[in-house]
Amino acid sequence: AQKITQTQPGMFVQEKEAVTLDCTYDTSDPSYGLFWYKQPSSGEMIFLIYQGSYDQQNATEGRYSLNFQKARKSANLVISASQLGDSAMYFCAMREGRETSGSRLTFGEGTQLTVNP
Amino acid sequence: NAGVMQNPRHLVRRRGQEARLRCSPMKGHSHVYWYRQLPEEGLKFMVYLQKENIIDESGMPKERFSAEFPKEGPSILRIQQVVRGDSAAYFCASSPRRAQGSGNEQFFGPGTRLTVL
After folding, report:
1. What confidence tier does A101 reach under pLDDT thresholds 50, 70, 90?
2. Do the Cβ atoms of A91 and A39 come closer than 8 Å?
3. Cα(A27)–Cα(B39) distance, rounded to whole angstroms?
4. Residues B37, B109: contact at Cβ < 8 Å?
């Protein structure tokens, strides 16, 4: 079974509008972390936002927010006021276990976001 | 404060040659992770190392691939007798001994793009 599922291979949004990128996960570990990374065409991996499994509130970082629904095992990324520079591939990832134990990330297949002017 | 460094950024090899990819973690980081990204796919975990120790190599192909992180110097991912299917982007990430729980636990390098002719 896939541990991280991103069902949207591609998404389009108009500049200045909001967009939601979907991510569902599968784990039996009570301690885990969920991450979103942005990969522009230049190829580097840019960390965007993080949600811990025990965090009570949804994470926010500027225009990025994470809609964390633990019972549904979903961690959707919301980008508000889209900009042309947001056009990139977006990856959802999960770390199982506590952050102090050191653990690998499992990535989804990604969603290619295109922001139209 | 230099980030994670990888070199070379681009590497071209002919089938049957050896490829050596180097990763220098951030200062003070003692954990290194290697990931492979095939074209149009997400990152896949390969190996997790601490200084002089391989902690988890469950993602490494059984043959031709090896990794090390010596006491001094960078981590090396070595691919012997490369084949066309090895063409991919190889990312290194590093993390401190104890992550801070902020989510920015794995700092990614810019990647090495390996092309096998």
Report:
1. low
2. yes
3. 27
4. no
